[in-house]
Amino acid sequence: MADNIWDSILIPVDFSKYSAAALKLGLELAPKVARRLIVLHVGVDPTDMPGFKQSGKAEQKVTRKVEDTSQDRFEAFLDEHDVKKALKDTPVKLEKILVQGRPLQAILDCIKKEKPSLVIMGSRGHTRSPHVLIGSKAERVMQLSPAPVMVVKPPSKKAGKKDKDKEKGEKNK
Q1: Which residue among 7, 11, 139, 170 is least crowded, i.e. fewest CB within 10 A of its CB?
Q2: Pseudo-torsion of CA 73, 117, 110, 134, nearest 10°?
Q3: What range defines the domain where residue 137 resides?
Q4: What's the pLDDT score for residue 5?
């Protein structure tokens, strides 16, 4: 690592292929420039859902189930992308943050609290529209974040095919 240029990199994830691309880039970049890699997942708060009407113990039970499911999915996502293995022989400290709430506000709150040197996020999430270049949450984070924001997208299938074709051509030489 080059003298810990940055304190931290924050990567909000929603388990989409877009946030997976952001995580992959963060895992490549962090050992070179950062002391901490913060991965944030914002789980759904059922009490924010329209029509949710529970009270007392019933509300607590539903909320606890949602939190447990979010935690399980978060850990599975990190395992699927070999996060611990990628950082194993590096001085980078992994910090996992799981909160319940509205994604945009939770991301901005985390940026305010953690003060990352860089935020890396996917260009879209699960609620993407095929006609939109950048997702609304990514756009709003870019507008409102005091930290620099890098927005990434996963490699296209065409790009992967071009790379494979290029490799085949080089092998035939």
Answers
A1: 170
A2: -70
A3: 6-171
A4: 84
